[in-house]
């Protein structure tokens, strides 16, 4: 094998993104890679020559086992948009200069649809200058909004945490003999996959959530207030799941209806937070009912103590599949998961042109959202296999043990 390997992580973290890192590292080593470098804070860090030799950090099989169970991005992350090639030639020259200094022949980037923009631009530039470096995308995002792939690693574990947490919130929320309303805000930006996972809470031991609001449909506040009023008028408590990205008719996010501080990242994404709080305040003040807003926020992204073994395994496999494909000569591609069977559930990996994946958001199909503010059984059946099985944390002194980040 000629040349070295470099791998980076980018975008929001997940509970299993390090399992993909482990899959890239171990597969590259097993296939004869001399050095496997890790970019610190993705491409942004690389531009500042921030990288580590991963063999000095991951030395034993126990380290691999710990890495798979360590949440968030072990190498650090970034939200950094590369310039268009025509406008930022110097940036690309610098990146390729650094890659050549390190004798890199294989470049892997673990991320979502914004991060795949980086793979797209680097592989396009590589073709322009006749570089022989192979560029491969490794999918990840709790949002599950990546095109082409059946689902994204990271989603299953976040969905499992959300469904389990909803069961506990429902137990707590229905405890009193007078009506209360709990509104839970769930991440996912403009795609409702994760919020839909709240529906999985329902079962023979749990009533389930009452209403679910996804960003794919316009949020009608008056209709929402009517629904709440009619349910609580029967003396019932309610638990409601709302996406952080729900918007009203004029396009504003619900959280933008209240005073807020707005942060916008390099991809132009506003920080979404506060919809549940806004709605809880509105119900409290207009209907005089006790309300509580719960923002699951970052808790849902890195809950490795509640991760799905299916998810951890698939995250590892997509990392390994990216290495195999690149070592066999593929470039400018993303590894995707293809569901080949529902019962028993089975997914295989394939590779797909990054141009059809980068910057595209895959939304929940409207036919999977019901008229009465819930989701269909088809959507529940789609998610259910992804949350199956557990990989127990390695517990030390009563707490899950993670791989140390001492870089
Ligand atoms: O990575 C996706 C995501 O988790 C979204 O669901 C959420 O809106 C966003 O990240 C938050 O990003 P940040 O950590 O940059 O605030």
Automatic annotation (TrEMBL):
<comment type="similarity">
    <text>Belongs to the phosphofructokinase type A (PFKA) family. PPi-dependent PFK group II subfamily. Clade 'B2' sub-subfamily.</text>
</comment>
<comment type="subunit">
    <text>Homodimer.</text>
</comment>
<dbReference type="InterPro" id="IPR035966">
    <property type="entry name" value="PKF_sf"/>
</dbReference>
<comment type="function">
    <text>Catalyzes the phosphorylation of D-fructose 6-phosphate, the first committing step of glycolysis. Uses inorganic phosphate (PPi) as phosphoryl donor instead of ATP like common ATP-dependent phosphofructokinases (ATP-PFKs), which renders the reaction reversible, and can thus function both in glycolysis and gluconeogenesis. Consistently, PPi-PFK can replace the enzymes of both the forward (ATP-PFK) and reverse (fructose-bisphosphatase (FBPase)) reactions.</text>
</comment>
<keyword id="KW-0808">Transferase</keyword>
<protein>
    <recommendedName>
        <fullName>Pyrophosphate--fructose 6-phosphate 1-phosphotransferase</fullName>
        <ecNumber>2.7.1.90</ecNumber>
    </recommendedName>
</protein>
<keyword id="KW-0479">Metal-binding</keyword>
<dbReference type="InterPro" id="IPR050929">
    <property type="entry name" value="PFKA"/>
</dbReference>
<feature type="binding site">
    <location>
        <position position="113"/>
    </location>
    <ligand>
        <name>Mg(2+)</name>
    </ligand>
</feature>
<comment type="pathway">
    <text>Carbohydrate degradation; glycolysis; D-glyceraldehyde 3-phosphate and glycerone phosphate from D-glucose: step 3/4.</text>
</comment>
<feature type="binding site">
    <location>
        <position position="244"/>
    </location>
    <ligand>
        <name>substrate</name>
    </ligand>
</feature>
<feature type="binding site">
    <location>
        <position position="12"/>
    </location>
    <ligand>
        <name>diphosphate</name>
    </ligand>
</feature>
<dbReference type="InterPro" id="IPR022953">
    <property type="entry name" value="ATP_PFK"/>
</dbReference>
<keyword id="KW-0963">Cytoplasm</keyword>
<dbReference type="InterPro" id="IPR000023">
    <property type="entry name" value="Phosphofructokinase_dom"/>
</dbReference>
<feature type="site" description="Important for catalytic activity; stabilizes the transition state when the phosphoryl donor is PPi">
    <location>
        <position position="140"/>
    </location>
</feature>
<feature type="site" description="Important for catalytic activity and substrate specificity; stabilizes the transition state when the phosphoryl donor is PPi; prevents ATP from binding by mimicking the alpha-phosphate group of ATP">
    <location>
        <position position="114"/>
    </location>
</feature>
<dbReference type="Pfam" id="PF00365">
    <property type="entry name" value="PFK"/>
</dbReference>
<keyword id="KW-0324">Glycolysis</keyword>
<keyword id="KW-0418">Kinase</keyword>
<feature type="binding site">
    <location>
        <begin position="141"/>
        <end position="143"/>
    </location>
    <ligand>
        <name>substrate</name>
    </ligand>
</feature>
<keyword id="KW-0460">Magnesium</keyword>
<dbReference type="InterPro" id="IPR011404">
    <property type="entry name" value="PPi-PFK"/>
</dbReference>
<feature type="active site" description="Proton acceptor">
    <location>
        <position position="143"/>
    </location>
</feature>
<feature type="binding site">
    <location>
        <begin position="187"/>
        <end position="189"/>
    </location>
    <ligand>
        <name>substrate</name>
    </ligand>
</feature>
<feature type="domain" description="Phosphofructokinase">
    <location>
        <begin position="5"/>
        <end position="325"/>
    </location>
</feature>
């Amino acid at each position: 094998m000629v040349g070295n390997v470099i791998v980076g992580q980018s975008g929001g973290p997940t509970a299993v993104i390090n399992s993909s890192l482990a899959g890239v590292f171990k597969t590259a080593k097993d296939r004869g890679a001399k050095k496997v470098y890790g970019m610190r804070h993705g491409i942004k860090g690389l531009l500042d020559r921030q990288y580590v030799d991963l063999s000095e950090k991951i030395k034993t099989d126990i380290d691999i086992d710990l890495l798979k169970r360590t949440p968030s991005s072990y190498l650090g992350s970034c939200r950094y948009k590369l310039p268009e090639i025509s406008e930022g030639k110097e940036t690309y020259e610098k990146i390729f200069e650094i890659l050549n200094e390190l004798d890199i022949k294989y470049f892997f980037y673990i991320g979502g649809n914004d991060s795949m923009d980086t793979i797209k631009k680097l592989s396009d530039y590589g073709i322009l200058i006749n570089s022989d470096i192979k560029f491969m995308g490794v999918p990840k995002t709790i949002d599950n909004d990546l095109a082409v792939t059946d689902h994204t690693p990271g989603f299953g574990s976040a969905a499992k945490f959300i469904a389990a947490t909803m069961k506990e919130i429902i137990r707590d929320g229905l405890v009193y003999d007078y009506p209360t309303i709990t509104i839970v805000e769930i991440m996912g930006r403009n795609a409702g996959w994760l919020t839909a996972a709240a529906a999985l809470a329902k079962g023979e031991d749990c009533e389930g959530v009452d209403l679910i609001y996804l960003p794919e449909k316009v949020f009608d506040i008056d209709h929402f207030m009517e629904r709440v009023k009619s349910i609580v008028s029967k003396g019932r408590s309610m638990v409601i799941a709302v996406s952080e990205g729900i918007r009203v008719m004029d396009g504003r996010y619900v959280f933008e209806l209240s005073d807020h501080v707005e942060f916008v990242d390099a991809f132009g994404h506003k920080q979404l937070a506060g919809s549940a709080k806004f709605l809880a305040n509105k119900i409290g003040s207009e209907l005089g009912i006790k309300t509580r807003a719960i923002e699951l926020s970052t808790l849902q992204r890195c809950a490795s103590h509640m991760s799905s073994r299916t998810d951890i395994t698939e995250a590892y496999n997509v990392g390994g599949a990216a290495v195999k494909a690149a070592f066999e000569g593929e470039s400018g591609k993303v590894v995707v998961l293809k569901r080949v069977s529902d019962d028993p559930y089975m997914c295989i990996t394939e590779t797909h042109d990054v141009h059809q994946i980068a910057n595209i958001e895959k939304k929940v199909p409207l036919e999977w959202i019901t008229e009465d503010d819930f989701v269909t059984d088809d959507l529940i059946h789609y998610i259910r296999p992804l949350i199956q099985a557990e990989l127990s944390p390695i517990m030390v002194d009563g707490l899950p043990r993670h791989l140390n980040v001492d870089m």
